[in-house]
Amino acid sequence: MESQGQGEVCSPETLAYMELAIEQAKHALDCLEVPVGCVMVESGNVIASGRNRTTETRNATRHAEMEAIDVLLEQWQKNGLSVSEVAEIFSKCTLYVTCEPCIMCAAALSILGIKEVYYGCANDKFGGCGSILSLHSSSNQPHNSGEVAQGKGFKCTGGIMASEAVSLLRCFYEQGNPNAPKPHRSVTLQATHN
Amino acid sequence: MVNEKTELWQIIHIPDKPPISPAEQPTVNAFASVIEPKLANTFIRRLNQIAPLENLRHVKRIQKRNDEKGKNQLSVILCLASETENDKQSNNLPENVQELINSYQLSPFITKVCKYAATSREEWEEQCKLWPTSYHPPTYNINGITGFGEEDSQSVFDFMKVAVDLAKSGGGLMVNAAVIVDPSVQQIIATGHDQIYSWHNKTGTENSHLKKPASFASNLNSNGASHLTVFPNNLHNGPERLYVGVSCLSPWQWCGQQLDMETSCYLHPLRHAAIVAIESSAERDRRLFPGLLHTEKSFEVESMQSSCAGSPAKRQKTNLANVEDGKELDAHSEATSVRPYLCTGYDIYLVWEPCTMCAMALVHQRIRRIFYAFPNPNAGALGSVHRLQGEKSLNHHYAVFRVVLPQ
User: GO biological process: what's one of them (chain B) (predicted)?
Assistant: First the structure.
């Protein structure tokens, strides 16, 4: 609900980053995975990318976002970054993902304290950034205040290259997902109008 | 001794919707009257014709109560009443209902009945205090929603003990712990505990948890319930400080809690117990059922679909004897059993109610039932802050239970 539609004119950079996310999604499709991809951008640089890997891992939580996050943490672990440095970089990160983050991923992005998310098509069944829950909106806070840290919100903009994202998903479900009893991410045909 | 303790354990179903207290349940008024028990059938037949309870199919027509003398007393709902009518002015009754009243010399009174069907057994029990209703458990028939038998309860308690022990295994600081179980063969599939400051590389964890299930299971009885008193029954009775290590309770706290850690060497803010356990069960899946072709998979998906709708008991129960010894099934027998689709049919035991991330991860991984011991008022997603088991749009729904530990 907080997320804006694509009526807003998005910058050439935004489109360029989303293009890279779409590339990742295509890569997933080639590997018979649900075609969702993402890139993580900090200070103008792509610092990680990820794509869905649920079939290969038999772990249905291995969404594109989780893959990219693990790449980053592994790298920062090697470089010996401190906990506060990790927190600081996450707070400057922008995620470009072809499909609205699901409830799990949106919660994860809030836990990490990410700055901003741009997504392609909406996720009518699982979306955690406005479709089912609105975990990106910081008003979504537990009642218990005090010292316990509250949920962190992040800016969220949907509808970036949504039709490309949808056509990849449609492509996947037309060929049939041999692994899931039911579709994993919803194919939102109206996503371009959200 | 252990049995004495376990009598204090309790399993509570956490329904899809927040339970409504009897005072808050919407009600409607109806005219009712005491009738002669032998006329009950006559009344029911006649009233169903002239004044059917169209939108109140959950409301029973007849109420049976004991009167002061201990004799059965039957009352019947004649028809609905408007909200403004009172006992004495029953002028607006339909003509044919009025005729019935006259011919049997009934004295109608106003009663309240619940407007909506109960969504849980607890709600239903409350409703019946006003006027009896019928209760149909959710259409997905998950074992336990309508109650647990003694044997099943004991098994639930035993697995919860494994989770509690795992939560305390880290030494001073309590963490959340998860145990994934295949209930059809009473076997632990995978375990995990919070690792947000102890994330070793993917290869590092591989061996350690393979041995755990067997040793944990064999220790079940000796562990007993004696040292469970570390946990206060109510989370807020205890010092909050004890629980700062529980990731799901304060998921956003990872950057504030440094725990003497200068570097992010082992940092992974998302390595909550449930996520770790899911990863471990996926590893097990790959290890036991390597390299299946897609054609085989799709066949299997079909068979899983047909069986998951019914009872998971259809799953092969070959090596029960082995399991009772607390041993993991040997590789040969497991390879011949049906490969599960993700965690279809499996249960998970968590010490604390999972946060939103973990609760949704368990939807994705198709867990069938979740048992947790302590609610998570700050971030819990199974009834505390969110209630994912009641999100209709999701493609999978698990049943949720709270296991109340003895004090």
Answer: tRNA wobble adenosine to inosine editing
pLDDT at B102 > cutoff 50: yes
pLDDT at residue B85, rounded to an integer? 58
User: Across the interface, do B201 and A74 touch by the CB < 8 Å criterion?
Assistant: yes
> How many residues comprise chain A?
194
Q: In what order do the strands lie in the sheet with B27-35?
A: B62-66, B72-80, B27-35, B109-114
Residues of A in contact with B386 (CB under 8 A): 133
Active site residue A65: yes
How many angstroms separate the CA of residue B205 from the nearest CA in chain A?
A: 15
Nearest chain A alpha carbon to B263? A82
- A83, B258: Cβ pair inside 8 Å? yes
The sign of the CA dihedral B43, B45, B49, B51 is positive
Q: What pTM does this model have?
A: 0.70
Pick the CATH number of B1-13+141-199+242-254+265-288+339-406 from 2.120.10.30, 3.10.20.310, 3.40.140.10, 1.10.1270.20: 3.40.140.10
The architecture in CATH of the region B27-115 reads 2-Layer Sandwich (3.30)
